[in-house]
Design goal:
heterodimer, A: 586 residues, alpha+beta, Nucleotidyltransferase, domain 5, Substrate Binding Domain Of DNAk, Chain A, domain 1, six-stranded mixed sheet, five-stranded mixed sheet, 28% helix, B: 145 residues, mainly alpha, Helix Hairpins, 7 helices, 0% strand, globular, Diphthamide-biosynth_chaperone (chain B), DnaJ_domain_CS (chain B), DnaJ_domain (chain B)
Chain lengths: 586, 145
């Protein structure tokens, strides 16, 4: 029953026509157009729908709810992990996925530059990840008939989503168009556009992109609401929950205040660490000459590395439930690994990862202006939350003995996404179980380059969305007629440490001494999470002043690294702006 | 063309990264603003439908109740829905924090006036039908690929 895509040269994906998005044909579908919920995991993916009464997770033909996220390139056929290869005799096994012919970890690669350390770390994967280190997109390729065939993370994700969409349509027996997807907190706005593009290639319209822990928060709000209705306790008191989510590629934390079906996201923090990093740490630990041993991707090295990956992965999984594990694997070329691993050694090797987890939890609590004692419930989700050290670390920081019980570690995010899908599609439920609202917050600072290479945050992170903020700037040169507005997103103090979203110039600034012009830069995030930047001269005023400029961000498509550097080098001095000192502001 | 009120009052939240701490009058003056009759600005308490001495719990409850009506997810893409919610949230953010509430209570009138002024429409908004609630750009118009 699998879906096969034949002949790569032919069009792989459908393109939705403009008329479909204008809403003119909204009355046409005879089926309820309820958005589906999709959780694209780095390692596994799942899909869920609101079936009219509750959220239902769909299973593939192999009876799996969590489907391995990969696309296999074989001859002229492509098949994704949703079906996992069609018939029984073609079924992909883990060693096939690690043979170089499959692309996986798309979520780690999508929308990243080749200077990104996550991309650098991805070079230890069996397929080809080539970098030039200049801040352009990496080159990735799958092994097909002993040849590297190029592709892109967006394309791979689109192929996967197309197969996923077919699975859902087969199950629901009607076409599916809208989807709510969960994304990591650490995803930049540029990465979000890449996810939207992949969805569009697969014929899916993104109704919403939801940070993963906020999807879990929505599920929690629903459970709290139902419990209240059950206990008949009125509107109830506010409950604070901390959600810790760690999967194979990302780690997220959210603090939410929940009452009366409203989940208000108080703070979000996230970083790009996950099970993949733990796996690579352990592989390098048991095989200290990992990098030299696997330098150059030849066929036998790819096969050997696959064996090591499988053995290490298996050991990490077993270590969650036992005191010690043995890793025994013959890697060929006279290289054998034989190692006994215990918890203390495991924790020592991965201390840097646990430290980062601690950091983002503390950061999130600080941003939410809360202390551990304020927390009512702690939720641990994602595959890595099974690791004993992670559990004890999170519960310890939150000063809790146990975690919240009523959610499934691997299914909570997708269930929340399906709930949001139903709510955003306008579905109501007589029992009131969809009478919910999530008040989102923006996870990263948004601002512009100013005062040299500094970053002036205009909308600080954890501002409630929709939001609108502005800030005044002034010129740094006498008679400066133009100013460069370079928009960045991130946590770095220097502009260059952040993601460049786009840039534009304000021209026609009146010729006056430096510091005497007032330039307003306003940032607006609307209800659909679209960022717009408005900028122009507000002082002096008069007919000689050029019109304001409105720019929708991000505008940049590629080359985020060198582009920012080039802008700074060519225009940094002459078109620089300075934050207007407060004492000069009226 | 009921104008979309604009930016958050500076009194709101006073976030870490924002150098501004004191509310300041808006510097964007325009014809639209001058023409608009100066209706008495509601206080932040009035925005939340509360009396001045409301408890923190009442403030939170009122915010949640109103959010369930006015959040753009509920109110839909109606023009000004997002701005309405931004105003509601700013009132909540100011009043739910003891420090900023005290500051607001001391200089209430001035802040309220500033808030009212910020409702004035900046000149760059004059032609647009309000940014809020604009349909999300679909990828189809994205020409990059």
């Amino acid at each position: 029953m699998g879906v096969l895509f034949c002949r790569m040269a032919e069009q792989l994906y459908t393109v939705a026509s403009d008329s479909e998005t204008t809403g003119e044909d909204k009355s046409q579908p005879s089926f309820p157009d309820v958005a589906i919920g999709i959780d694209i995991g780095t390692s596994k993916c799942s899909v869920a729908v609101w079936d009219g009464h509750q959220v239902e997770l769909l299973k593939n033909t192999r009876n799996q709810k969590g489907m391995r996220s990969y696309v296999m390139f074989k001859d002229d056929n492509l098949s994704a992990g949703v079906t996992g290869g069609t018939a029984q005799e073609n079924a992909h096994e883990e060693r096939d996925i690690l043979s170089g012919s499959a692309i996986f970890n798309m979520k780690r690669l999508i929308g990243r530059m080749d200077t990104d350390e996550v991309v650098q770390a991805s070079k230890a994967l069996p397929f080809l990840v080539q970098t030039l280190g200049i801040g352009v997109r990496p080159f990735i390729a799958a092994l097909v008939n002993n040849m590297w065939r190029s592709t892109t993370p967006e394309e791979v994700l689109a192929i996967f989503l197309l197969e996923l969409k077919a699975l859902v349509e087969m199950h629901l027996k009607h076409p599916v168009r809208n989807a709510v997807l969960t994304i990591p907190v650490a995803f930049s706005r540029f990465q979000q556009t890449r996810i939207e593009r992949a969805c569009a290639m697969a014929g899916l319209h993104v109704l919403r992109l939801m940070p993963e822990p906020t999807a879990v928060a929505l599920l929690y709000a629903q459970q709290q609401q139902q419990q209240l209705m059950h206990d008949n306790m009125g509107s109830g008191i506010e409950k604070i929950a901390l959600i810790f989510n760690m999967g194979a590629g990302y780690c997220d934390v959210a603090v939410t205040a929940t009452a009366g079906g409203v989940s208000q996201i108080r703070a979000l923090s996230g970083c790009t660490i996950g099970g993949e990093d733990i796996l690579q740490n352990i592989m390098r630990h048991v095989l200290p000459n990992f990098d030299s041993f696997y330098a150059g991707q030849t066929m036998d090295r790819i096969r050997s590395m696959g064996l090591l990956r499988i053995a290490t992965q298996d050991a990490i999984h077993r270590l969650a439930n036992q005191e010690t594990v043995e890793i025994n694997v013959d890697l060929g070329n006279g290289q054998k690994v034989s190692k006994v691993l215990d918890h203390s050694e495991f924790e020592q090797v991965n201390w840097g990862i646990f430290e980062k987890c601690e950091k983002i939890i503390n950061q999130c609590l600080l941003d939410a202006k809360l202390v551990p004692e304020d927390i009512n419930d702690v939720m641990l989700v994602g595959g890595c939350s099974r690791i004993p050290r992670i559990r004890s670390l999170v519960l310890g920081l939150c000063k809790k003995e146990v975690s919240y019980k009523n959610i499934d570690t691997l299914e909570a995010a997708v269930a929340g996404a399906a709930l949001e899908g139903a709510i955003a599609s306008g579905v109501t439920d007589p029992s009131g179980s969809l009478d919910l609202l999530t008040i989102q917050a923006t996870p990263m600072n948004l601002g512009i380059r100013a005062d040299g290479d500094n970053f002036a945050a205009i909308i600080p992170r954890n501002t409630t969305v929709p939001a609108r903020r502005d800030m005044l700037f002034t010129t740094t040169q006498d008679n400066q007629s133009e100013a460069l507005i370079a928009v960045y997103e991130g946590e770095g103090e220097r502009a260059e440490d952040n993601h460049l979203l786009g840039y534009f110039k304000i021209t026609g600034i009146p010729p006056v001494p430096k510091g005497s012009v007032e330039i307003s830069v306003c940032m607006d995030i609307d209800a659909a999470n679209v960022l717009r930047v408005f900028a122009g001269v507000v002082k002096p005023q008069g007919p000689a002043i050029p019109p304001f400029i409105e720019v929708r961000m991000p505008t940049l498509d590629d080359g985020h690294g060198w582009c920012g550097q080039a802008l700074a080098k060519m225009y940094g001095k002459t078109l620089d702006l300075a934050v207007l000192p407060k004492k000069l502001q009226p | 063309m009921i104008s979309a009120p604009l930016r958050a009052p500076a009194a709101a939240g006073a976030p870490l990264f924002r150098p501004a701490s004191a509310p300041r009058p808006i510097r964007i003056r325009c014809a639209a603003a001058a023409a608009a009759p100066a209706a008495p600005a509601p206080t932040l308490y009035e925005v939340l439908g509360l009396r001045a001495g409301a408890t923190v719990r009442e403030i939170k409850a009122a915010y949640r109740r109103l959010a369930r009506e006015r959040h753009p997810d509920v109110a839909g893409a109606a023009p000004g829905a997002a701005a309405e919610f931004v105003r509601l949230h700013d009132a909540y953010a100011t009043l739910s924090d003891p420090d900023s509430r005290a500051r607001y209570d001391r200089g209430g009138a001035a802040v309220a006036a500033a808030v009212a002024q910020q409702r004035a429409r900046p000149r760059w908004a004059a032609s647009a039908g309000g940014y809020y609630g604009r349909p999300r750009r679909t990828w189809e118009t994205d020409q990059c690929w």
